[in-house]
């Protein structure tokens, strides 16, 4: 299943790469017909699509490679680097586009054949929207940042092209040539914002920043499959590298269990988490023995070593399970108050 998913991701990003090359050629031809600065800006930004899609293809190929001696945690982090690289290129392109827009405002030039040029741009809008939506959908499904980033880029490219078409319509209706340069300037600002967001996400991933949505999903899985012998879970950490998921936590189990029982319980715990994720999942569980204080929250019935009466079940949430301390310490403090 994982192999088929990787192949599907590679085919999609290859489709994006080929389409980007063709559409970039069409946009430059539209600029050749019109001499429109806004269309030139769109064409220059499409060069970024080509470079980014090519790098994304390589990153997805590399991230799908198995772990090796030099990369014991796999190659998934390359997707963060790919998204950051794409974002940086977009920001650079936005600066160039903005500078050219200001130059055209100060020194306007005639625009020709806008109707013909607009037809080419409209065609690229539909193609980019279709491919971008598919990439974004598959990227979210497979937890691929590189695929999702390329999809968002194509969709944003489509949105900016729509704005470009609107500016062309305004020029045709009003005859005001300066609208072309103003539209190009706004286009550059929009690209700068889009690119900076990609860079921010990339840096967060490379720095192993917590993904609250991903962490919440894991907590919900644990709550939905909560076992009576899972007395306590704490120090829960979740990281996503490409489509690979890494989870580690401390799991409190009955202190009197034999090692074989502990092993079986942890194996079952891992299988539950793995079943909730479509990609590879690596889990490290540190088993803690229960203490007398745990009895107040332990749900094991007819426990022969129980020293305290059961008082309440602990509600598991992201904040509690992420702390590096047993939950009963916090709950006992609340009860004493």
Automatic annotation (TrEMBL):
InterPro entries in alphabetical order: Cation_efflux, Cation_efflux_CTD, Cation_efflux_CTD_sf, Cation_efflux_TM, Cation_efflux_TMD_sf, CDF_Transporter
Domain Cation efflux protein cytoplasmic: residue ranges: 212-290
Domain of life: Bacteria
Keyword entries, A-Z: Membrane, Transmembrane, Transmembrane helix, Transport
GO molecular function per UniProt: cadmium ion transmembrane transporter activity; ferrous iron transmembrane transporter activity; zinc efflux antiporter activity
SUPFAM superfamilies linked: Cation efflux protein cytoplasmic domain-like (SSF160240), Cation efflux protein transmembrane domain-like (SSF161111)
Compartments where located: Membrane
Membrane topology: Multi-pass membrane protein
One GO biological process term: intracellular zinc ion homeostasis
Transmembrane region(s): 12-34, 46-64, 76-97, 117-136, 162-193
One GO cellular component, as annotated: plasma membrane
Domain Cation efflux protein transmembrane residue range list: 13-207
Family named by the database record: Belongs to the cation diffusion facilitator (CDF) transporter (TC 2.A.4) family.
Name this protein carries in UniProt: Manganese efflux system protein MneP
Species assigned in the record: Dyadobacter helix
Underlying gene: mneP
């Amino acid at each position: 299943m994982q192999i088929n998913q990787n192949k599907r991701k590679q085919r999609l990003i290859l489709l994006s790469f080929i389409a980007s090359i063709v559409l970039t050629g069409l946009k430059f031809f539209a600029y050749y017909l019109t001499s429109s600065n806004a269309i030139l800006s769109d064409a220059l930004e499409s060069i970024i699509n080509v470079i980014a899609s090519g790098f994304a293809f390589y990153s997805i190929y590399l991230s799908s490679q198995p772990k090796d001696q030099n990369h014991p945690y796999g190659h998934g982090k390359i997707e963060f680097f790919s998204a950051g690289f794409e974002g940086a290129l977009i920001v650079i392109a936005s600066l160039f586009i903005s500078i050219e827009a200001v130059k055209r405002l100060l020194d306007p030039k005639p625009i020709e054949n806008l109707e013909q040029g607009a037809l080419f741009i409209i065609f690229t809008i539909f193609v980019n929207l279709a491919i971008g939506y598919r990439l974004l959908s598959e990227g979210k499904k497979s937890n691929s940042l590189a695929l999702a980033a390329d999809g968002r880029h194509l969709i944003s490219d489509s949105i900016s092209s729509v704005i470009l078409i609107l500016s062309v319509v305004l020029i045709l209706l009003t005859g005001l040539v300066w609208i072309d340069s103003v539209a190009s300037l706004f286009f550059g600002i929009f690209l700068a914002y889009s690119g900076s967001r990609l860079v921010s996400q990339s840096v967060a991933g490379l720095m192993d920043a917590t993904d609250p949505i991903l962490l919440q999903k894991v907590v919900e899985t644990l709550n939905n499959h909560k076992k009576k012998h899972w007395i306590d879970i704490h120090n829960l950490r979740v990281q996503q590298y490409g489509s690979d998921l890494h989870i580690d936590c401390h799991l409190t189990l009955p202190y009197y269990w034999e090692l074989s029982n502990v092993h079986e319980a942890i194996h079952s715990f891992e299988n539950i988490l793995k079943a909730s994720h479509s990609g590879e999942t690596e889990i490290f569980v540190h088993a803690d023995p229960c203490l007398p204080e745990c009895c107040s929250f332990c749900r094991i019935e007819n426990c022969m070593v129980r020293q305290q009466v059961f008082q309440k079940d602990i509600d598991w949430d992201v904040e509690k399970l992420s702390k590096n301390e047993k939950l009963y310490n916090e709950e006992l403090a609340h009860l004493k108050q």
